[in-house]
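Hey, can you fold this one?
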Amino acid sequence: MKFSMVREALLKPLQAVIGVVERRQTMPILSNILITVENEKVTVAATDLEVELVTQADASVEVDGQITVSGRKLLDICKALPDQSTVNLNLKGEKLNIKGGKSKFNLATLPASEFPIIEDIKTKHTLSVDQSALKNLIEKTHFSMAQQDVRYYLNGMLLETTSNYIKAVATDGHRLALSQVKTDDNKVEKQQVIIPRKGVLELQRLMQEKGVVNIEIGANHVRAELDNIRFTSKLIDGKFPEYDRVIPGESNNKLKANKKQFKGALQRTAILSNEKYRGIRLTIKDSGVSIQAHNSEQEQAEEELGFEYNGDDIEIGFNVNYLLDAINAIDGEEVVLSIQDSNSSCLLRHPSQDDCIFVVMPMRL
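Sure. Predicted structure:
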């Protein structure tokens, strides 16, 4: 295997796939990337057995071949080489020789035959969606995914497709985020899949503001093709909670708040909340809302806000981080909080749009 590329042209595919290369791996092959050289093209693949990324670039090829090499080391070498320098890569025995500028490097390799590649995902459903729309769905829900929960089906995002919409839902059992976008693809059958957390975050990173992404859903995998990059992720084999039952109905107790003012007050008050549980108390009356926090050192913070409210007096506690995450994800200048009573979940949404809704469970203080 022997080929050469301009430094910047080699950097692009390496940076595209490096996100799934783990720094510390029990399996050495997973710290490596697979490089395949043929037909004046270089294909770079990386995987952690859950998520796989494959991309391609043009190269000046002398000898076709295939090998695996440390992804991090090769990327670091390319970054350190002079701008616009030509990088020559030549496989000699079990070493990959790299020359760039006046520098020379020899990297250890492992056989390409040991590298795990996901081939056919046995596609059941396909759909196309604007990258910006999918990016928006993920950005408005990903923060509600669980992390390392024993309920493994919560450690990811539900992607639901029908002929009318694509919906993303995430919950960690304490809060829920739902976002949806309309679609005109009437050929799409109703389908629910759970994409694992790492796959969701990697997909979010890959999405651009322009262009279309083609999605294939298989029995055990989801695959997305976009801009010369192929993303494949395992699916979580489990049943996602019936989220419709978690979302409370609209209450007559509605607080309409200016987002910027409400967010600022929450952030200031939270300075003196318990560092672990992050609890704050909302006291809501016709005159407005009072936000209070205290901690184990008997320190207290309080702020009064004169927001519009119609409904019963309510005193309720929440994790302030959950409220802030939801408020940050809502577009526009205002947010509406709907709360049935002091023991009920809080529904947060835009005053006039229902494509995004957020639910936060109350907490005892």
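Residues 259-270 form the longest helix (12 residues). Let me know if you want another pass with a different chain boundary.
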